[in-house]
């Protein structure tokens, strides 16, 4: 899922997954967005939008939040109004993280839940009724978190999308600190 599209205004990121099997802990995936300043686009985020929060100016909101994946179609939806972001904000990185990623196995041990443990994942990025990108997390089966989109403001003020699923093996807090780092 890679591509570039210019002059984006209002974009929706949608996430779906199947509920966990009966008798097992719920699968809880969360969309989050880290917003970076034009002066330091790979440094510390100016702010992060995640479950239970929104952008201070209301330009990024989590419209729907699911803790189980139960629902029809896309269970979690985030809207980014890129055209309303302040000029000093030049980069937005969107990611998905698995919450409560510890699985207690029958042998008494623990292991980390990864995307390979979660069935029916899907990701859609759209503007209006136009799909810009679609994917799932089968490309990063051993990851506990992934970046899924990077929006960058160009010199004329237009926004460009680079849609690419890139996996991380971090807990949610560490993922927020590393998701926007410069790619090698």
Question: Explain this structure to me?
Answer:
- The protein has 184 residues and is mainly β.
- Helix content is 4%, strand content 44%.
- The chain is built from 1 helix and 13 strands.
- It has one helix at 172-178, and strands at residues 4-5, 10-16, 28-37, 47-49, 60-64, 76-81, 89-99, 102-104, 110-112, 122-127, 130-135, 145-153, 159-168.
- The strands form 3 sheets. Strands 1-13-12-7-3-4 form a 6-stranded antiparallel β-sheet, covered by helices on one side. It has a 5-stranded antiparallel β-sheet with strand order 5-6-2-10-11, with no helix packed on it. A two-stranded antiparallel sheet has the order 8-9.
- A hairpin with a 5-residue loop joins β12 and β13.
- The longest helix has 7 residues, at 172-178.
- The relative contact order is 0.25.
- The model has no long low-confidence stretch (mean pLDDT 86).
Query: What shape does the CA trace take?
Result: globular
Mean pLDDT: 86
Class from secondary-structure proportions:
mainly beta
Quaternary structure: single chain
What fraction strand? 35-45%
Largest sheet: 6 strands, antiparallel
- Number of E-state strands: 13
Map the helices and strands.
Layout: E1 4-5, E2 10-16, E3 28-37, E4 47-49, E5 60-64, E6 76-81, E7 89-99, E8 102-104, E9 110-112, E10 122-127, E11 130-135, E12 145-153, E13 159-168, H1 172-178
Antiparallel strand pairs: 1-13, 2-6, 2-10, 3-4, 3-7, 5-6, 7-12, 8-9, 10-11, 12-13
């Amino acid at each position: 899922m890679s591509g570039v599209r210019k002059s984006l205004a209002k974009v929706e990121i949608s996430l779906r997954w199947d509920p966990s099997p009966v008798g097992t802990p719920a699968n809880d995936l969360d969309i989050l967005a880290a917003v970076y300043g034009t002066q330091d686009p790979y440094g510390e985020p100016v702010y992060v939008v995640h479950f239970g929060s929104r952008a201070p100016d209301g330009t990024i909101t989590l419209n729907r939040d699911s803790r189980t994946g139960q629902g029809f179609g896309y269970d979690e939806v985030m809207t980014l109004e890129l055209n309303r972001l302040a000029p000093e904000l030049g980069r937005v990185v969107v990611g998905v993280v698995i919450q409560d990623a510890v699985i207690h196995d029958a042998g008494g041990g623990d292991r980390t839940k990864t995307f390979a443990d979660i069935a029916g994942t899907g990701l859609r990025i759209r503007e209006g009724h136009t799909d810009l990108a679609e994917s799932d997390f089968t490309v990063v089966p051993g990851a506990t978190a992934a970046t899924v989109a990077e929006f960058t403001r160009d010199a004329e003020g237009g926004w460009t999308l680079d849609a690419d699923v890139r996996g991380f093996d971090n807990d949610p807090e560490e993922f927020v600190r590393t998701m926007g780092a410069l790619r090698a």
